[in-house]
Amino acid sequence: MSDQLKEGIFMRKRFSIILCSVLCIVSIGYDAINSSAQSPIKFVDTSQHWAEKAIQTAVEKKYVDGYEDGSFKPDLPISRAEFIKMLSSAAGEKVEKVEGNDWFVPYVKRLKELNVIPVEFPERYNEPLQRFEMAMLSAVSVDTTLKGTMLDAVKIGLIHGVSTTDLAPYGTSTRAQAITIIERILSAKKGEKLPIDKYAASAAEIAETGSNVGTMLGLKAKEMGTTWKYAEGVTVKLNKLIVADPADPDDPYMKLIDMRTWGKSFSKTDNKVIFANFTVVATEAGVGAPDMLPTQVLRQLDTSNEFLLTEQALTEWMRFNKPQTHEGYVAYALPNRIANLGIVFNILNTHTILAIK
Question: What is the pLDDT of residue 304?
Fold first, then answer.
């Protein structure tokens, strides 16, 4: 073999080795870059936080950022401006960004154009966002035909209660909690059915209408706020009509019942408990009116049992010897087969429908 041929073969081998090395370096570099791009953004204050995963998702979707010091501040109360910006960015709304103290103005303007922010919404955007305001913006973001009440937001599954009876409408939310709501909004807008907090739905319905018959029985309440005349100068007003489920150990209203009045053979699964809250007012003109025993003149029909209450009970016997006001509940059991159709009370000797299909 000639020296020239040997040199050619050597050069080709050398070129192949160099090319292979270059390709390997390029490949390693690409993998390193790709790996770096996929590695999650770490904040100094989110490790082990309950919302760590949700925060990571939100940052990757680019509708929320951390702070320059490497923190996220997940438990910091969120302002109206911050939530509006998150809501707008998460929805993919394009706005012209503004620097300085008015950075939020384009986001506010855009959501007003979409009728998400109502005219009555507070203009103090740098103040903490209250939960009823968050419910308003969230519900209308999902469905612009809604009024944006707390009940609207709860029924969609956007808002849950802080306890079985409390929605804390005037409470505030943190940045982490706001992200949770934003993710629910995005899911709802995609048509996903969100889990609903039935206790929150009950509390929201009571706050808005005075009754939870819709949540509990699928009924419509009637006569809420109606006042009847008992005698000259004495009136009776219906304030609330609340349904409780004795089969649910967590039902918040069952704690009002003195369970010693619950018969041992009485079925919890076959009955509901109906609480009716009344206010009885006697003015000066009512002094001398006949005594009132509420269980005789404010009685539920078709009842299976009458219960004593451990607290918030309406006065059992009223003697109108002076001007006075009484407020409290009477409580009765009602078989499910009847409760599912309607609730009827005998109020001052008049059959009165309080809830119906």
Answer: 80
From the list 162, 262, 142, 257, the residue with the least C-alpha distance to 204 is 162
Distance from C-alpha of 75 to C-alpha of 106, rounded to nearest angstrom:
26
Residues 339 and 301 sit within 8 Å (Cβ to Cβ): no
- Taking the C-alpha atoms of residue 131 and residue 170, their distance in angstroms, rounded to an integer, is 6
Phi/psi region, residue 162 (left: phi>0; alpha: psi -120 to 50; beta: rest), is alpha
Q: Which of 278, 276, 272, 285 is nearest to 322 (CA)?
A: 285
Q: What is the pLDDT of residues 166-200, one digit of tens each?
A: 899 999 999 999 999 999 999 999 999 999 999 99
Closest CA to 197 of 215, 179, 170, 217: 215
**Structure-token match 């003109």, residue found:** 285
Task: List, in sequence order, every residue forming a beta bridge with 329; answer none if it has no partner.
Answer: 277, 313
Please count the residues of the chain. Answer: 357
What's the sign of the alpha-carbon dihedral 172, 178, 180, 183? positive
pLDDT at 165: 86
pLDDT of residue 40: 65
pLDDT, residue 181, reads: 96
Residue 218 Cα distances to 113, 221, 309, 317, 339, angstroms = 36, 10, 26, 34, 10
Cα atoms in the 13 Å half-sphere on the side-chain side of 196? 17
| Low pLDDT (below 50) residues in the chain | 3-6, 8-11, 13, 15-38
Alpha-carbon separation of residue 160 from 195, 212, 277 (angstroms): 9, 16, 25
**pLDDT reported for residue 263:** 85
**What's the token pair of residue 170?**
């005037």
Pairing mode, strands 220-221 and 305-307: unpaired
* 8 A C-beta contact, residue 227 and residue 279: no
Q: CA 112, CA 316: separation in Å to the nearest integer?
A: 53
Compute how many other C-beta atoms are within 10 angstroms of the C-beta atom of residue 321: 11
